[in-house]
């Protein structure tokens, strides 16, 4: 049971990253599953009520800020929801580290996609719609990849992970 519980968060993060890469969408169902998973895990590991409150507050703060960024068209709506749901798992203590890692990984991802877009699209690559979309300079960047990767990097420092491995 403990191993399955430990893998829940990374599995959902991998799903989010692959979904964003292949479709440029992060579904509401995925985000709701992440939020529901947090609620279950918080009960399983008996997260103290004060700590639970801080996790909820961290997620709410990131949701408000991220939706402001979405309103300014800086990020997608799925990215905003994923960042908030991920922060819910990490709490305030890891939020800054998570967001810095997401920004750095997002910068690297953006540079990689810009590099891809600077070379001609080969017929072999053009067979894959998701690669064609990534190559298109009018398309955005699947930032959910960076958000998910940053979450997985930080996850082992989270209270939930630590309590599951204790």
Q: What is the overall number of helices?
A: 9
Return the domain count. Answer: 1
Compute the number of strand runs.
0
Helix content: over 70%
The dominant shape is elongated
Write the SSE topology:
Elements: H1 2-23, H2 28-44, H3 49-71, H4 77-90, H5 92-117, H6 123-126, H7 129-135, H8 144-155, H9 159-165
Helix pairs in contact: 1-2, 1-8, 2-4, 3-4, 4-8, 5-8
Can you put this structure into words, describing what you see?
The chain is mainly alpha-helical and 166 residues long. The protein has one domain (2-165). The protein contains nine helices and no strands. The protein has helices at 2-23, 28-44, 49-71, 77-90, 92-117, 123-126, 129-135, 144-155, 159-165. Helix 5 crosses helix 8 (144-155). It is elongated, with a radius of gyration of 17 Å.
């Amino acid at each position: 049971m403990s191993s399955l519980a430990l893998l829940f968060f990374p599995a959902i993060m991998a799903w989010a990253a692959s979904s964003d890469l292949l479709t440029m969408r992060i579904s509401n169902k995925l985000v709701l599953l992440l939020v529901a998973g947090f609620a279950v895990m918080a009960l399983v590991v008996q997260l103290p009520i004060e700590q639970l409150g801080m996790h909820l507050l961290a997620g709410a703060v990131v949701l408000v800020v991220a939706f402001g960024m979405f309103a300014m068209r800086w990020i997608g709506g799925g990215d905003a929801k994923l960042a908030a749901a991920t922060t819910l798992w990490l709490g305030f203590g890891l939020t800054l580290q998570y967001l810095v890692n997401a920004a750095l990984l997002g910068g690297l991802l953006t540079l990689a996609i810009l590099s891809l877009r600077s070379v001609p699209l080969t017929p072999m690559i053009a067979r894959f719609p998701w690669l064609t979309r990534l190559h298109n300079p009018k398309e955005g960047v699947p930032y959910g990849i960076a958000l998910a990767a940053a979450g997985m990097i930080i996850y082992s420092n989270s209270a939930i992970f630590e309590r599951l491995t204790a």
